[in-house]
């Protein structure tokens, strides 16, 4: 499903090299690989479980939406299901709280 970027809490990039690589890949392929999201009720936006650099690159390139896989339920359980650590993203979205 395509998710409007305005509904995603996109933290700042933490690896400029990964950001540059993702930006180049998106420009070359003219598409964005899907990101993984979970809903966060407190900030009322989707939190990125995987895809911080892709999300930043897509937003900066002017994409209005991005392909996404949505993991239902509590953030902690969604992260377990994905095998991800939401705390990396959550620490970076604290600016939205």
List the topology elements.
Blueprint (H helix, E strand, L loop, with lengths): L1 E3 L3 E2 L6 H14 L5 E6 L4 E6 L1 H9 L4 E6 L4 H8 L3 H8 L4
Parallel strand pairs: 2-4, 3-5
Antiparallel strand pairs: 1-5, 3-4
Helix pairs in contact: 1-2
Compact overview of the structure:
The protein is an alpha/beta fold.
What labels describe this entry?
Conserved hypothetical protein from pyrococcus furiosus pfu- 392566-001, ParB domain; disordered C terminus; alpha/beta; 24% strand
Plain-language structure description:
This protein is an alpha/beta fold. It has a single domain (2-96), classed as Alpha-Beta Complex (Conserved hypothetical protein from pyrococcus furiosus pfu- 392566-001, ParB domain). The chain has four helices and five strands, in the order E-E-H-E-E-H-E-H-H. The protein has a five-stranded mixed beta sheet. Helix 1 crosses helix 2 (52-60). The longest helix is centred in the N-terminal third of the chain and has 14 residues, at 16-29. The termini are far apart. 33% of the residues are buried. InterPro entries: ParB/Sulfiredoxin_sf.
Tell me the CATH topology. Answer: Conserved hypothetical protein from pyrococcus furiosus pfu- 392566-001, ParB domain
Strand share of the residues?
15-25%
Which CATH architecture would you pick? Answer: Alpha-Beta Complex
Termini Cα gap = 26 Å
What is the radius of gyration? 13 Å
Supply the CATH class.
Answer: Alpha Beta
Count of alpha and pi helical runs: 4
Estimated helix fraction: 40-55%
Inertia-based shape: globular
InterPro entries: ParB/Sulfiredoxin_sf
């Amino acid at each position: 499903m395509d998710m409007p970027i305005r509904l995603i809490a996109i933290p700042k990039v933490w690896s400029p090299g990964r950001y540059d690589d993702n930006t180049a890949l998106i420009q070359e392929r003219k598409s964005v690989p899907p990101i993984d999201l979970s809903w966060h009720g407190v900030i009322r936006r989707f939190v990125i479980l995987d895809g911080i650099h892709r999300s930043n690159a897509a937003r900066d390139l002017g994409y209005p939406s991005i392909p996404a896989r949505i993991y239902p339920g509590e953030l902690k359980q969604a992260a377990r299901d994905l095998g991800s650590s939401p705390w990396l993203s959550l620490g970076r979205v604290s600016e939205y709280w």
